[in-house]
Design a protein that fits this description.
The chain is of the alpha/beta class. Helices cover 36% and strands 12% of the residues. Helix 6 links the parallel strand 3 and strand 4.
Length: 285
């Protein structure tokens, strides 16, 4: 409830009368009247589980007192409308847009619950995937980039590999200074540190990719599907070691559909196998 009319605090002409009377409380966030309905609309080109969780958890509320509502069906429709999401029924994905003829490996890890998904992804990468398929290439000086969409995952990986493989690993994030960027890019190009861990937001803000990279590993599916096809197209096509690895779990459905397409994502999530491979030539998969 505004107590002052200072500039910028509130536009009095847009305030409802019930808001001025302090009728909004934690237990009754909005009075059940035709003029007292709040509508929360989230508009985004890219759906994400965190957006849906926030929308459904914070934007919905349950009013127990329905004595003032004559039509119970209308009440149910009104207060559950926030659950509707408008999205394309089917998506083709961006895999066919990859112009580089490179083998793309989709590897699924088993996530027991959404609460443990981040820990299990980290354990899968550091204890299974990295020693089995990535470390040998790094030891042979194959330039490898680990693309990490989440900054929180990046911090965890940075701390781990700084302690375990400090001599071979470089790091880039959106908080890296220009001096640090030049130093890291030079070390990566000159093979001083052939393993580069990079955040998704670094590419989002800087919009350039490291040259001469041969292997690209997506720690999780990127939120922006265009990143997948764009970054792969910038790999070194002349190297025989060029390959792509994408790690995903059952809670990465939204991102996976945008990348692989609706039909392929369904197979990636439902089939018994945990490893899939695609090869593209710019026109077909």
């Amino acid at each position: 409830r505004p107590r002052e009319t200072t500039e910028g605090l509130a536009q009095i002409s847009r305030l409802f009368e019930w808001a001025m009377r302090s009728e909004i409380t934690n237990t009754n966030p909005m009075p059940v009247t035709p003029c007292g309905r709040r509508q929360n609309i989230v508009m985004t080109a890219l759906n994400h589980s965190s957006i849906q969780s926030t929308f459904r958890g914070l934007c919905e509320f349950d009013v127990r007192d329905t004595t003032d509502v004559e039509d119970e069906d209308a009440y149910a429709t009104l207060y559950k409308a926030a659950s509707f999401v408008i999205a394309p029924a089917k998506q083709a994905g961006v895999i066919p847009k990859v112009t580089l003829p490179v083998r793309q490996h989709f590897l699924r890890y088993d996530a027991s619950s959404i609460a443990n998904a981040d820990d299990e992804r980290f354990e899968y990468f550091t204890q299974s995937l990295f020693p089995a398929r990535i470390q040998s290439l790094i030891d042979r000086e194959v330039r490898t980039i680990l693309f990490v969409p989440s900054y929180f995952d990046f911090v965890r990986l940075r701390n781990h590999y700084f302690n375990e493989h400090r001599e071979l690993t470089a790091f880039l994030s959106e908080y890296s200074t220009e001096k640090q960027q030049r130093q890291v890019l030079g070390q990566f190009t000159d093979m001083e540190r052939p393993f580069l861990i990079m955040t998704g937001r670094f590419y989002f803000f800087k919009r350039y990719f490291v040259r001469l990279a041969e292997q690209l590993v997506f720690y999780s599916p990127p939120i922006h599907p265009s990143y997948y096809s764009i970054l792969i197209s910038k790999l070194n096509a002349e190297s025989p070691n060029t390959s792509v690895i994408l790690i995903y779990g059952k809670y990465d459905t939204h991102e996976l559909v945008r990348i692989a397409g609706t039909e392929r994502a369904k197979q990636l999530l439902e089939r018994a196998a945990n490893s899939f491979a695609f090869v593209t030539n710019g026109t077909s998969v």
